[in-house]
Amino acid sequence: MQKTIVSHSSVSLCVECSFLLDHLLLCVLVQTHVGLSSEYTFDTLVTKVVNTPPSTPLCPTVDPVTSFGGNIGNFVSWSIGECTDAEDSSIIPVCDPPSGRLFSVGSTLVTCSCTDSSGLSSECTFNAVVTGG
Length: 133
Known about the structure:
This protein is 0% helix and 53% strand. The protein has strands spanning 2-6, 11-19, 23-32, 37-45, 65-66, 74-76, 83-85, 89-91, 94-96, 101-103, 106-115, 121-131. It has a 4-stranded antiparallel sheet, with no helix packed on it. The chain has a 4-stranded mixed sheet with strand order 5-12-11-9, with no helix packed on it. The protein has a two-stranded antiparallel ribbon with strand order 6-10. A hairpin with a 3-residue loop joins strand 2 and strand 3.
C-alpha cells in the first residue's frame, strides 16, 4: 500500500506499508520541491491480542440455614473471591440474588458472574437452602 501526501509547504510525503504475518514495515520518503529527500524505514512487530473472559468465580459452599418461626425464611450470606482478567486485572463478582438478603424456605439458585470491560463474562452457580423451622 502506498500513499503520497502533498502539503502546502511544498514537501511531499510518500508512505509505503508492507504487511507481513507478524510485522508492519513502514517506509516514509520525504521530498522537498527542490528534490532533496530523506527516507525512513520502521519495522514494527504486530502482535494479535486475544481477549479472553475473566476467570470463573469460585462459588462458595453455603450450609443450609433454618427458617425463622412460621417458615418466613432466613437471611443467607456468603463471601466470594474476585475473578482475574488479563484486561481488567481483578473483577468483583456480582451475585443474583445477592448475599445477605432474605431467602424463602426451599432451595434458591444463585448465579455469580464476573464481566470485564469488553462484555466477556464467566459465572458459577450454587444453591442457597433455607429449611422449614
